[in-house]
Amino acid sequence: MQIYKVGGAVRDRLLGKPVTDIDWVVVGATTEDMLAKGFRPVGADFPVFLHPKSGEEYALARTERKSGRGYGGFTFHASPEVTLEEDLIRRDLTINAMAEDDQQNLTDPYHGQRDLKARLLRHVSPAFAEDPLRVLRVARFAARYAKLGFTVAPETLELMRQLSESGELEALTAERSWKEISRALLEDQPQVFIEVLRECGALKVLMPEVDALFGVPQPEAHHPEVDTGVHTLSVLEQAALHQQPLTVRWASLLHDLGKGLTPEEEWPRHIAHEHKGLKLIKAVNERFKAPKDCQELALLVGQYHTHGHRALELKPSTLLELLQSFDVYRRPQRFEEFIAACEMDARGRKGLEQRSYPQADYLRGAASAARSVAVQPLLEKGFKGPELGEAIKRERLKALKAYKEQA
Q1: Domain segments of the chain: what residues?
Q2: 38-85: per-residue pLDDT in tens?
Q3: Are residues 151 and 121 in contact, defined by beta-carbon separation less than 8 angstroms?
């Protein structure tokens, strides 16, 4: 039995990055050997075991064969005869197909170290094209390592293009797709993820609503970058620079989908794009079964982001409706995330990345003014039921009028 550290742990050590998760491959062992040493089995499809003390994953060396469509369409074979090289060749990228023993002796049959130095994301073998999930994975690695100068090798991009055109991407489950998308959006340069998907034709398949934004112009006075797709990438980039949570990044990606529906004769204006985009945002949310908090914020930002930009001009009654829509009294964090998304939208414009956004503090102050209305005095006056609701609304409107006058 020989045990090797494999994949990301080896890659990140060679890059000088912190190693968090460690994967191990065991060569020359059987399931019975692992059980005898106290390992606990966890793999349903192939033999993976948890170490009795560390809890880390140890997988028996295995080969795989394509047997159906999609990410799960593989037959695995694990036995003591499978070599380390045979196990590594089934991996996605050369930089993930290296192994080292307990003395840090490197096994690198597919030149991963060379590609690390060349800053290339290159597939290990033609079998790469058998797994559609790898299109998303490579785009995610491109986003993670873009700041180190990594790019996708042309021949790998071509395989990704073939996969995108093959219909295989449609076989991916919502859960697997969302796992890759959400991880990619939380990388340092998530806009690169979208760029790579677009370059290989996968964006058109997975998110045609986002793909449709490229080439759609906006008024240059407000958007010096003009192109709506370029603007969307810039908003996503700003969200990452400001370390926004996943909810804000997802909303940043989807906020302008309605502009993709504007007839060409109306360009570069996009009247009512906020309302038109809601059905598209809902469709993307449902396609990937995004978590509820991501879905809700994306829809609210899509509908109200221009309200955010015009916050200082809004009538108190409109401001109150906005606050009610977000339920700022019970869910203040969601309104904070809305403000953040609006600010990222304002900064995601060429040459305006450092602009101030006074609307943020104004909206926070408005929410605070509305929340300061006490309910107890109204109860003491005998209001109850629907009448109490109307009385609270009147008091909040009064508070917002006073706030606007003072601001």
Answers
A1: 1-111, 112-370, 372-406
A2: 999 997 667 899 999 999 999 999 887 755 555 555 567 888 999 999
A3: yes
- What is d(CA 198, CA 207) in angstroms, rounded to the nearest whole number? 10
Pairing of strands 151-152, 120-121: parallel
Neighbours of 80 (CB within 10 A): 13
CA distance 354 to 224: 14
Give me 333's structure tokens.
């964090």
CATH of 1-111, one of 3.40.50.720, 3.30.420.40, 3.40.190.10, 3.30.460.10: 3.30.460.10
Please give the Cα distance from 126 to 110 (Å, whole number): 13
What tokens does 257 get?
């989908």
Tokens found for residue 156: 């790998």
Number of H helices, E strands in the chain: 20, 11
The correct CATH number of 112-370 out of 3.20.20.150, 3.30.70.20, 1.10.3090.10, 3.30.70.1150 is 1.10.3090.10
DSSP code for 403: H
Give residues with Cβ within 8 angstroms of 336, minimum separation 6.
364
- Is it true that the peptide bond before 219 is cis, omega within 30 degrees of 0? no
* CA pair distance 265, 398, nearest whole angstrom: 43
pTM of the entire predicted model: 0.93
The string of DSSP codes covering 30-61 is -HHHHHHTT-EE--SSS-EEE-TTT--EEEE-
Q: Which two tokens stand for residue 343?
A: 């600010």
> CA 15 to CA 102: how far, in whole Å?
19
Strand partners, 75: 65
CB of 300 closer than 8 Å to CB of 320: no
Neighbours of 285 (CB within 10 A): 19
Query: For 257-312, what is each residue's pLDDT tens digit?
Result: 999 999 999 999 999 999 999 999 999 999 999 999 999 999 999 999 999 999 99
Q: Which residues does residue 65 pair with via DSSP β-bridges, in sequence order?
A: 75
Report d(CA 57, CA 132) in Å as an integer. 24
The residue among 300, 288, 295, 292 whose CA lies nearest residue 340 is 300
Alpha helices in 123-262 (DSSP H): 133-145, 154-166, 174-185, 190-199, 202-206, 208-211, 228-241, 246-254
Q: Could you tell me if 123 and 88 are in contact, meaning their C-beta atoms sit under 8 angstroms apart? A: no
